[in-house]
Structures are given as structure tokens and as C-alpha cells.
Amino acid sequence: MFEQLSNLPKLPSLASLRNMKPLQRREMLMGLAFLSPWIIGFLVFTLLPLMLTLYFSFKEVKIEDGLLGGQFVGISNYIQLIKDPQIWSSSGTPGAMWITLKFGLIALPIGIFVPLGLALLMNNKYVLGKMVFRSLFYMPFIVPFVAAVFLWGGMLNPETGWINRALMGLGVPKGNVPLWANDMNWVYPTYVIMGIWGIGNAMLIMLAGLQGVPTELYDASMMDGANPWQQFWNVTFPMISPVIFFNLVLSIVGLFQYFLVPLVVNLGTGAPGGSTMFYNLYLYKTFFSFHNMGYGATLAWGLFAMIMVVTIALFATSKYWVYYASEGRE
Amino acid sequence: MTPKFMHQFRNGGLTLFMTLLTLSILVIFLSPFAFMIFTSLKTQAQISIVGAPIWPAAPSLFTYKGKDVETFIVPLGKCEGFDTGNTSLKSLAVTTKGRQSSIFVDPTDASLKEFKCNVSWRALDRSWAFSPTYSNYTEVWNTIKFPNLMWNTFFYAVMSNIGVLFSCTLVAFGFSRFRFPGRDFLFIVMISTIFLPAFVTVIPTYFFFQKIGWIGSWLPLIVPTFFANAYDVFLLRQYFMTIPRELDEAAMIDGAGPLRVLWSVILPQSYPVLMAVTVFHIVYAWNDYFGPLIYLSSSRDKWPISVALSTFNGIYGQKPQLIQAGALMAMLAPLLLFIFAQRFFVQGIVVTGVEK
User: Fold this and answer.
1) Nearest CA to CA, how far is A94 from chain B (Å)?
2) Of B33 and B93, the one with more pLDDT
């Protein structure tokens, strides 16, 4: 899906539009007519709100004040954003940005390697019943997010959950079992475990990528005497790098916006001890709880800018490690 | 052993090992389903008994001389009338509890003869009987007005699905069948919207919907689906591009306009992708939490199942059996849809992830 984003097409020049033949012009108008639901939707529900958010970010305005209410404060919202201890504080309770980054660093590798590992298993010739396994590993992805969080929440209940019972069965003393969602140090692993049911999509995409690797390449590497590890790094990985890239980009964009799990599990309070006040949760509370539209908009644009920078950087690195097999053929 | 047989033997071992490995990962991965079912069948008391098994269990009782007596797992070797070398265990009912020895009867023995065993009853494991309770489901059903929630969720899923099918089909047709300058640029703009954080557009959109009085109604959730979205347009476009243009051209020579081509040539051949878009969207809408949360939280009578379920955490924090029963009721519909429409899910995901 993202391959075309690596080489952006140019906008047509005005001259070329002016010199169109009538037939071409007719085709263009027809095409635009069919695209119009999306074009109108993009203008009304994306571009205009994007600009309005920018406009609000230069104002001190509550949601009750209306479009023209409040007053312009220049860039003072952005200065507040840069200085906000709730976002950047590194002593005591960490700021929302550090929480987001810290959680991202734990969750991202798991979100890539667990589905990749499962996809490799599903693609292994020694595993019987692959189709059944594939469906069953994917199935939890269908479970409503709130229900999945409650199931894992129950599993991770410190007293009655199966995970602590299993730990105690393995010999962990009763006083030493983790308190999971109620413990500042365990709450991130708890969220990672709660999110593990979301890997179904990534697993299927990676599996499809693995199945698409031509067998001749494996045969050729066997002839050259490659061991399984070399085969993985020199054949499998480059061939599936586009699907890894796809999942990596979507995971990072998603992790920057992570907040629904803390909102449901810890009721959005940031408990325990402020350790789950993620950036996006802080944004959500600023706007929906405190109705602070000006600063909420600033936080939103700040997030947007960060995601944009990271995404562009990722796309820039992609030409060094992502290999699109179709490039050579054209 | 011949080399060929050795080879087969080794492969057989590897197959067994790898399959069992995958199976055990799967069992751990799916174990929360078992947790949910077992917990939802327990009573409040069954959850808090220390040392109870994980399944819904009650101490197994035996009616002896008109009284209910408890049963324990007793090593028969310590009982009168049995060999001291006897190592087997048996579930026996205790009639007289003692610290040094207790009197038991064997519930399976028709004569019900009492006998003494030299064990302290406190040191014995209880014998448990399977004892499920179904009242949690009825309690959840009644307290959250379950049929009403189902209807709300269904209504949202179906109405927004109509919007998605209608708009995304038109847009995908436009992207796949017309050539004009700027088309590829627009396509890339559309794909890029996937990266936009929701809040950067939600703030003014919420504000706007509030101004026109749509908060607390279905409209903010349904109307935007009539303006297409990147994922579904991409999915449909990829499929439409595999349909040969010659078919369109033949229809156009017969005098069909573009809408006619879409309706009579493209759509009849697109059954698999239309199904994929539908099942994805229905599951998406069924599970959607954020949209209904912000737009419907003030109007309880319109809540879909996801929002209603999320309130359980606060209300039933001390009653996990109700939370698990509610979770099961919430996931039933999407799971059934998945079971019957699996292949459409798989194909759809593969297209978005693998195709360029």
C-alpha cells in the first residue's frame, strides 16, 4: 500500500491542463465526478478541520466560546507545549511524551517480532494444519477491543487471574507476584499483554509476504551453501521488507496515538501514580474533560508534527532497507 | 534402518515437535477465552474461595443420613480394610472429622459402610464438583438492556456500511478507470490520510457537530462514512484493476455510460471484495469505541455494546463474573461473522498489506 508513497508523482502543470483535448477533458471531469465523494469528504472532514485546529491553536479558547470567541494569543500555546511539565518532566512522574516513548519502545518490537515469529511458524513446512492455526491465531483480532481488554484484565488480576496462579504454580512466592495494572513498573507490560490480541492483522500480512517469496530463491541459496540464518537475512528478510515496513509505519503511527487502553483500564486517570498519562490521553482530557480547545488543538498539531517527522524519516530510510521486487521488472 | 527411513523418521519427529510447539503457543494465546467462560459461570462466592480449581467448582457434598457432608481426596493406604501399600486416592465423604483420624464413607459403595482412616481431615484436598451458574448472563442481559444495545450496534454497523459501500465503490471506480493528470497525486493524498492522528481533525469536527446539534445522535458516526475512506477505496481499487478493461469497453460500445459500466460490469464481478469490505466494516463498527464514546456518551439509549461494556469496569470492578459474561455477549456477533466469513477477512488483509 505504501510503495507509491516512496516516489511522489508531480502535480500536473497548469499548461498541461489548459492544452487538454476535449476528450481528455471529458474523461477528467468524469473521473473527478466519481472521486467527488472522497474529494468533498477530504475538504470538509480533513483539510478544513486541520486548518481550524491550527487556527484554534493560536487562540485561548474554550469549546463553549464558539468559532470566533476567545482571543488570539500568538504562539503562547506552543510555548506552553514546549515547557509543559506534564509532557516533558523527566523527574518524579514522567511527562506524557516520555511515557508514550517508553511504552512505544517496549511495544513496538513485540508488535513486529511476535507476528513475524508466528508467521514464520505458519509458513514452516513441518507444521501441520496451518490453515486452522492461521484462523485461530487471527480470531482474537475480531474480538471487540473493550472485551479483549477485560479478558486480559481478568487473566492479569493479581489475586484471581490465571497468570499469577501460573506464576505461583511455577514457584514464585505469593508476595512476589506482579500487581500488573496496579503497579507502576508492571503497567506497561500489562498493556503490551492486553494488546497481544491485536497482532492478527500483522501476522496475516507477514504470512502473505512470506508465502510470496519465490521458492527458486531458497533453492539457489541452498546451492550456494547458505545456512538457515543466512537464508533468513539474505533471502527472506529483503523479500518481506515491504510488509515489515508497512507494519512498522502503522505501528509507530498507532503508538503515538495510544490512549484507549489506559482510558478503559485505568479509567483515564493516569493511575497508578500518573504512569499511564499518555500524550494522547492528556490531549483527550484537555479537550473533552476541560473543554480547552485552544491548548487541545496545540497538542493535536504537536502530535501531528511529530508523527509527520517520524513518518517522513522512516520513508527516507526505507530506500536503504526496503526492497520492492517490482522495481527491477519495469 | 535404511537412510530413507531415517530421513522420514527425522521429518516425522520434526513435524510432531513443530506442530506441538505451535499448538501449545495457540493454547496459551487463546486461554483468555477459557478464563472468560469459566469465570462467567461462577458465583461471587466461587471466585473468592482460596484453593478452588480454575473451573466453576463447588465443594462436592454427599447426603449421608439426611445431612450434607463434605468430601475429600483420601489416600486409601491409610484406611482400615485397605492394604498399607495401596497408593490410590479416592474421593470419600467424611462423617466424623478428627485430627488424628476421621471416619469416612465411600459414596460409590451401596452399603455405605463407615470406616476409619488415619489422616487429619485438614491436610486433605477437597473434592470438587463441576457447578456452573448461568444467572450472570441473565443479570447482565437485564441490567444493560442487552437487546437494545444489540439493536443500536447493529443499526450503526449497517447504516455506516451502506455509506462505505456506496462512496468507496464510486471513488475506487474513479481511481481505477479514468486517466487524467493529477489522479495519482490525489490517490497519494488519500493514502496519506491514514497517517493523520485522529485528534487533529476531531477537535473542530466535534465542535462543529456540537454547533449543529448532532451530538447525541447517530449522524456524526454515519454521515462521514458516505465520503469514502482510504482503506476501503484501496481495497476496492486493487480489485477493480484486475478486471480487464475490455469488458468495460465492450459495454461502452453497446452504449453504456460509466455508471452503467460500474453497475452492470464491475460490481457483479466484485462479489468477493464487496464482501471483504462489508465484513471488515461491520467488525470495525461493532468494535468501535472512540466514535460512540465521544458522540453518544450523553445519550444512554443510543449506546452501542462497546461503550456499555466499558462502563462495567467501574460498576462491576468487584464482580468479575459479570464483566466476563458481558464480554462474551459483546464478542459473540463478530466471532460468528468471522467463523462464517473467514476467507473474506484473510483476502482483504492480504491485499492492503502486500499489494503496492
Assistant:
1) 23
2) B33
